[in-house]
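quick one before i forget lol
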Amino acid sequence: MKITLSELALKKKLSYQDNISFDKDKYHLLKPILDILSCTVEVEAHHLNDGASLKLKIDSELLLESSYTLKPFRKKYHLSENLELTYRQEDKDNCDLIYVKGTTYDLDQDIFDLITNSVPPSIHLDEEKLPSSGKGYNVFTEEEYFKQKAESGNNAFDKLKDFDL
C-alpha cells in the first residue's frame, strides 16, 4: 500500500483502504506464523508541515502453529497503530519518526512488521494443554528437572565410586 505524499500535501487529508497480500519470497515468516491468510488495512493520513501522520487499522487472519501440539490453527488479529512520517533530513535519526525520501511511501513492510510483532513466540489454543509424559519421554517443569538432575547425579561415573586404587 503506497501513500502518495505529494497528493496528501495538496488535499491535507486522505483515506485509503486495501487488501494486502505478502509475497513469500520478499517477506519471510518465522514460526509460530505459518501464513498470513488475509490482511485488510485502513489508513487515515493527515498532512503535517514537516511530514504526515498516519492512523492504521489492520485486520488480519493468520495461520499459526501451536507451541503445545505443533498443529496449525487460525487466529484473527485487530491492530491499531499511529505512524509519523517526516521529510526533514535533520529528523532522519529520530527513532519516533520514519524518514521519507521521495514523494511516495510504501507501508507494506511496516504493516508486515506490526502483524508479525503482535504474535507472541509461544502461542496455543485456549483448550490445549501442555503435553504430559508419555512412552519414551517425560515433561518436567524447570524446577522438577533440576531437582531430578541433582538427585540422580551422572550414571556414567557411578561405577567409579567402587573403584579401588
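fyi The chain has a mean pLDDT of 85.
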